[in-house]
């Protein structure tokens, strides 16, 4: 089952209280990284090595400050490290020359270090963002590979939130955050080790002041980071529940005069999110100011201790090194605390994404979405055999279909009729390969549709009652987004004609290049269904399923489309779901469904004579026509 946002807080709480909490977080992070292509995982591992290199650069830069300050504070002596390495290099013991050389070396090291850190940071950001982009695409692929029944149960807003919100937060908030914490932590440890070698007692004092303050701040802010992170995640999902009906259901929103209702709900949501973002923002900034206070107090205490323990020249030299270290350590500590808070705030998104990935991986009935290969064996020409077919939805308590046995000859027109809820659309979805039978089988020759659905779908096209249209040129809607140089213009013109779209296209200012608006707002219901029929015919199917495809058409257009269907007789196997019996009166075979069973089969005349329930439907249809 997909993970709901309401479940996330409990899982995050478990991560903080379980003994294996860190292992649980690592496992979730591995689940997210696992969907990144193998070729990119080496780069993610390389991020750890760059963290070590960055820490070493900081260590060298700070350590070189000691000989420089010693030369500045002690005019009579030359530090041993300068004597050993710099004097042989410059070939003189002249103090001014040595001081200039040491200053140049220190300056060069700092410049090199900063440029190196910028380069490492640039590379790290590139790696993480490319991995994030790959993970988002992989997540979309997993959703599209999911079982048809399971996909329909998922919330659209949740799918969008996982792809556009949770996955980026998992990479930028958790993975990149962990890398930044590791980089800064290694740098802090390396600098402290160098300081410990130079002045142990002063270093212990620095650790107590700087480290203690950082730990205190992190511990105080910890529960708030989790709380506000989860609150932000829930508010984001709640926002979709107001945006979707307001925008996608604009027609109904206007008719029911609910504009102000959705606006007010969204305004309240954004106001609450703004307050949450404000609190998250202060959690990110407050540590910086608190640690700056700690730095000032720490440097004063360290100065007092150094001047108490050492002579003036040595104390000044060590104080300069500690100051240089503090300038590097305190911002690093600030970043560590702030990043840890951000990491905790992103943890609900990591949990959300990881559990959704696992849910998708555990699904039964996933399909491969790669295009059918031209080398695949052709689908057999034999009839479609349905034997003992049964189906029950995963959440259902009873069978939607049971004990259906039927043979559909190729090239015939077969109608599926019956009252609402009788199982007609489910049967059509099973024939299309979208659903897998829970009992019985559907075969074509030696091919079982449930075992090779992609191969079978290469020959099937479906026109639904609600044709999906998006804001694109009419040409793209018919070819379903095919690249311009891949479009068969001759075939396109033919399907436009066969779907009775010629006059409509001729009246458009830009013809097939005309944009129809999101959801097809610039076309009528009948025009939308004719676009759907043209789209189906463009796919060159051998089996065409029409699910109430003429329900929104006027009588004249319905008659034209019925003629189109009749013209396909013998060329395609046509499966028609219809409530209006006038649409299917000339079908070769009519399958009458009632309460999930095949209650009758035959021509219109045969069923009218044999089945009282069907005869009643015929009478009601005639009454409707008379009215």
UniProtKB/TrEMBL annotation:
It is found in: Cell membrane. The chain crosses the membrane at residues 45-66, 98-120, 159-182, 188-221, 289-310, 316-337. It comes from the Bacteria. Its main location: membrane. GO terms for molecular function: ATP binding. InterPro entries: AAA+_ATPase, ABC1_TM_dom, ABC1_TM_sf, ABC_transporter-like_ATP-bd, ABC_transporter-like_CS, P-loop_NTPase, Type_1_exporter. The keyword Membrane applies. The keyword ATP-binding applies. It is a multi-pass membrane protein. Residues 45-345 form the ABC transmembrane type-1 domain. PROSITE patterns: ABC_TM1F, ABC_TRANSPORTER_1, ABC_TRANSPORTER_2. Residues 384-620 form the ABC transporter domain. Gene3D superfamilies: ABC transporter type 1, transmembrane domain, P-loop containing nucleotide triphosphate hydrolases. Keywords: ATP-binding, Membrane, Nucleotide-binding, Transmembrane, Transmembrane helix. This is ABC transporter ATP-binding protein.
């Amino acid at each position: 089952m997909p993970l709901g946002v309401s479940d996330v807080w409990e899982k995050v709480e478990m991560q903080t209280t379980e003994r294996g909490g860190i292992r649980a977080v690592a496992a979730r992070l591995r689940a997210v990284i696992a969907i990144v292509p193998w070729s990119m995982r080496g780069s993610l591992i390389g991020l750890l090595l760059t963290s070590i290199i960055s820490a070493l650069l900081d260590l060298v830069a700070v350590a070189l400050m000691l000989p420089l300050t010693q030369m500045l504070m002690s005019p009579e002596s030359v530090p041993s490290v300068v004597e050993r390495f710099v004097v042989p290099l410059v070939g003189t013991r002249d103090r001014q020359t040595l001081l200039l050389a040491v200053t140049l070396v220190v300056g060069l090291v700092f410049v090199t270090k900063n440029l190196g850190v910028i380069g490492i940071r640039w590379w790290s950001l590139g790696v993480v963002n490319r991995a994030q982009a790959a993970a988002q695409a992989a997540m979309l692929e997993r959703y599209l590979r999911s079982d048809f029944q399971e996909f329909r149960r998922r919330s659209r807003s949740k799918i969008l939130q996982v792809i556009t919100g949770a996955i980026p937060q998992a990479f930028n908030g958790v993975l990149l955050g962990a890398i930044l914490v590791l980089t800064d932590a290694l740098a802090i440890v390396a600098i402290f080790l160098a300081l410990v070698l130079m002045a142990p007692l002063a270093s212990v004092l620095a650790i107590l002041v700087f480290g203690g303050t950082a730990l205190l701040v992190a511990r105080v802010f910890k529960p708030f980071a989790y709380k506000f992170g989860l609150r932000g995640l829930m508010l984001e999902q709640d926002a979709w529940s107001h945006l979707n009906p307001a925008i996608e259901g604009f027609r109904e929103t206007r008719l029911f005069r609910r504009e102000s209702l959705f606006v007010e709900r969204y305004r309240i949501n954004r106001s609450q999110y703004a307050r949450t973002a404000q609190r998250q923002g202060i959690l990110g900034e407050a540590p910086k100011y608190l640690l700056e206070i700690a730095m000032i107090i720490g440097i004063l205490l360290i100065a007092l201790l150094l001047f108490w323990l050492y002579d003036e020249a040595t104390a000044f030299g060590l104080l300069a090194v500690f100051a240089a270290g503090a300038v590097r350590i305190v911002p690093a500590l600030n970043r560590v605390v702030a990043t840890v808070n951000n990491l905790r705030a992103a943890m609900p998104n990591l949990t959300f994404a990881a559990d959704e990935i696992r849910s998708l991986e555990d699904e039964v009935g996933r399909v491969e979405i790669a295009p059918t290969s031209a080398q695949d064996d052709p689908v057999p020409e034999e009839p479609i055999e349905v034997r003992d077919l049964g189906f029950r939805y995963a959440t259902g308590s009873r069978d939607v279909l049971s004990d259906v046995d039927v043979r559909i000859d190729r090239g015939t027109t077969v109608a599926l009729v019956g009252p609402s809820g009788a199982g007609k659309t489910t049967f059509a979805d099973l024939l299309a390969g979208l659903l897998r039978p829970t009992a019985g089988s559907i075969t074509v020759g030696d091919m079982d549709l449930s075992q090779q659905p992609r191969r079978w779908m290469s020959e099937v096209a479906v026109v639904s009652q609600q044709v999906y249209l998006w804001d694109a040129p009419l040409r793209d809607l018919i070819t379903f987004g095919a690249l311009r140089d891949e479009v068969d213009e001759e075939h396109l013109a033919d399907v436009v004609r066969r779907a009775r779209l010629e006059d409509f296209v001729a009246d458009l200012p830009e013809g097939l290049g005309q944009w129809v608006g999101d959801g097809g707002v610039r076309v009528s219901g009948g025009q939308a269904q004719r676009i759907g029929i043209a789209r189906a015919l463009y796919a060159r199917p051998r089996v065409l399923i029409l699910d109430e495809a003429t329900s929104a058409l006027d009588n004249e257009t319905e008659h034209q489309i019925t003629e189109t269907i009749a013209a396909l007789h013998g060329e395609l196997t046509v499966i028609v779901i219809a409530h209006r019996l006038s649409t299917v009166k000339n079908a070769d075979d009519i399958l009458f469904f009632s309460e999930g069973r095949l209650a009758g089969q035959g021509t219109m005349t045969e069923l009218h004579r044999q089945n009282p329930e069907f005869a009643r439907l015929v009478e009601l249809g005639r009454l409707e026509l008379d009215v």
